[in-house]
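Two entries, shown back to back:
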Amino acid sequence: MNPHINNNNKGGFKNTRQRAARLLGGLTVTAALMTLSGLFSCSPSTKSISLPAAMSSSALSYKVSQNPDKDNEVYLESTTIGAIPFWDFGSGTSTNQYDTIIFPFSGDYTIHYSVSSAGGFVPGDSTVIHVSNTDLSYLTDPSWSYIAGETGKTWVLDMSKPIGWYGADYPKHNGSADDWSWHPDYAGNEWVMTNRDYGSMHFDLDNGKNYSVTSIAETGTTTTKTGAFDINTSTGMIKLIGAELLYGGDYHSQVSNWQNICILDMSETSITLGVWRDQSSEGTCWIGFTYKLQQ
């Protein structure tokens, strides 16, 4: 036995060799990883990517035609290759290659044509069409009859229940937390507005979608404004043009837009129309005013 070797340290030598092996193995792995990282290291790319060139407006091609028997019916056809059409005809828009639109009222209408291509949006040309006759049979949704009737309707605030508040989702009736309403009777809630004559508003379809409103101030001053209206029957919204909605009470400053109107409830003799309250510290919601036919 070698006197310089302590048998009690044999396990120590063994452990040392194991630690060394692990260390060398670790160094080997580290070196391998360094080699791989060198192989796959990032370097600036000199490859360039070319974006598609913008389509020239002269390349746009489309056709607008009318039914020769009923020129209220207008046919749209986009013949531009490799692009998505965008039609704007005033009362709506379309991205269909082929579409049919209806103008119930006589008059001149402008149809704008543009496209969206790989190179971006390309504004195009416009076409003016003429509709010779009014045909109310195209207005099939009952909301037209409810609000304007055949000969026009004049509405005044229903002071038995002139105002209410509605959640954002009330028009959808989807059962969400925002599908709520509070529309109290006026009796016992006189604080909502003074009981007086606030004026009237009139809708008719006499060769157009005509709207007028006569407002009576608290001082008795009367102001009349005339304009037009349109109903988007798919969204339940009314757009007023040239005049605001008739209202009562001190609520004008709580609403920034009195011309985009939501249909909250509607029948032949009663309508509730809402404006979006977006300027109040109490939060957003629909303020709904209820109207009855003027006697």
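entry 2 starts here
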Amino acid sequence: MYSFKKVFLALFVLFSFCRISETAYAETGETPSQANRCLTTVARILSSGDQRHAKGRLLCPGDQVRPIAGKQTLVLCHNGKSLTKGKEGEVGRLCSSGPKRLQQKGRLRFLKSRGTTDKEGKLSIVQPLGTMIMQLRPDFAWKPVKGSTHYEVTLQGPNSKWEQKVTSGHRLNYPKSWPALEYGKAYYVTVYAYQNEKIIGSDRTKLNLLYEEEISLVNEAVAAIHQLSLSPVEAAKELDAVYMSFKLLDQSIGVLQNLKDSGQSNSQLNRLLGDRYYQVGQPELAPRAEEAQLPTSMKLPQK
């Protein structure tokens, strides 16, 4: 009887460990022993073909990336928000550079200004968000202006300019009559609000289209992440890191906002979403304080 209890207890412990391992794998794509090799992981390998690390493995600063001959290893750095392909060496060195993260102080300043854009009623371009894009034929959208009868959208390139009148709604699908944007070129988009023949509002933004090889690299990384066994939250973190490696704020916001709308987000990602809206100058679209778990003493203006 005593031996039976010992066997039962051993089986129970083994079963519990397996369940924990399965949960950890579902969250990060790794077993606990893999993920706990260091206190803080700084990157994830997104491709096969490395001598030491399998596709999807989280990497420590001291890990070495050594591609197999003829292979180019794709590594996503988390802290610096950067993608490296075909490089080898210590992960900490490969991921040592990148844009600085927003500070809490800046986030609080931006939240205090919530609602000012809507209150003032200024025309504001809301699609694409940010200045870096990867679409050859992007769509445009803007906040409507009270009293406007129609809008005019102009797109100015290096050597040409196109115009389109919009009489219904406040968005414009990229016109078929306009040529596709050119890789690596900068463009200016201006939206004018008219009241009959009078301009009553306008907004202008600069758009920089990535180079073709940069777009291919982003698409490769995104496809690799979707192939990993990650939870929706972990996948969103990885996708944000990919898009922010090229400052693609519009794509990053799309991923984080979709996760929030589906009810699968958490306070950390809601705060990150707020950061992204701050970066594109649209603070009033950020999650409210209770969703981001900011200090309860801070009261945000009501719309």
